[in-house]
Amino acid sequence: AENLKNFKAGVVFVIDSTISMQPYIDSTKKAMQKIYNEIEKNNLQDKVKFGLVAFRSDIKVNPELEYITRMYVNPNQSDKNFLVNLKNLQAATVSSQKFDEDSYAGIYHALNEINWKEFGGRYIILITDAGAINANDERSSTGLGAEEIRLEAQRLGVAIYTLHLQTPAGKNN
């Protein structure tokens, strides 16, 4: 009972923010807002913290993508940042070179730029409509694949869940 009294969960959404994702980013924002409101309604803000990392693809090929990864909200910071910065998340206005995106970079960013130590429950929820750029692809910013990401998550005690959306743009992916 004493351990549960101090238990905290960190939930970090890692979202594909490429051009095909805008309607799904909007839907995800609404869902996140509802979840956050429920947490707040039940006075659990000190028990559940949210984070948000967005990812795209290789900016060397297309600098107009602006970033490969971006931390919008660190769960270790103020709760108010989540709602404010959630509104700032928008899809890219240009397409990336290929449909697969650098989702491993987004996950790696979340794993290594967040201090997970204060959380007993550690969760990453990946939301994308594209496959991941493979480790050996020249567009990979990390040079990591699924196995290396899995090992890093395991080392940190973070569970990763994936929502791979079957969108019209990604129907052949």
Q: Topology, please?
A:
Blueprint: H1 2-5, E1 9-16, H2 22-41, E2 48-55, E3 69-73, H3 79-88, H4 103-113, E4 121-128, H5 146-156, E5 159-164
Parallel strand pairs: 1-2, 1-4, 4-5
Antiparallel strand pairs: 2-3
Number of strands: 5
Strand-pairing-aware structural class:
alpha/beta
Unreliable stretches: none
* β-sheet strand percentage: 15-25%
Main sheet specs: 5 strands, mixed
What does the radius of gyration come to?
16 Å
- In DSSP terms, counting alpha (H) and pi (I) runs of 4 or more, how many helices? 5
Q: Which H/E pattern describes the elements?
A: HEHEEHHEHE
Shape: globular
Biggest sheet strand line-up: 3-2-1-4-5
Mean pLDDT: 88
Distance between the termini: 46 Å
Helix content: 25-40%
Tell me what you see in this structure.
There is one protein chain. This protein has 173 residues and is of the alpha/beta class. It has 5 helices and 5 strands. It has helices at 2-5, 22-41, 79-88, 103-113, 146-156, and strands at residues 9-16, 48-55, 69-73, 121-128, 159-164. Strands 3-2-1-4-5 form a 5-stranded mixed sheet, sandwiched between helices. It is globular, with a radius of gyration of 16 Å. The mean pLDDT is 88.
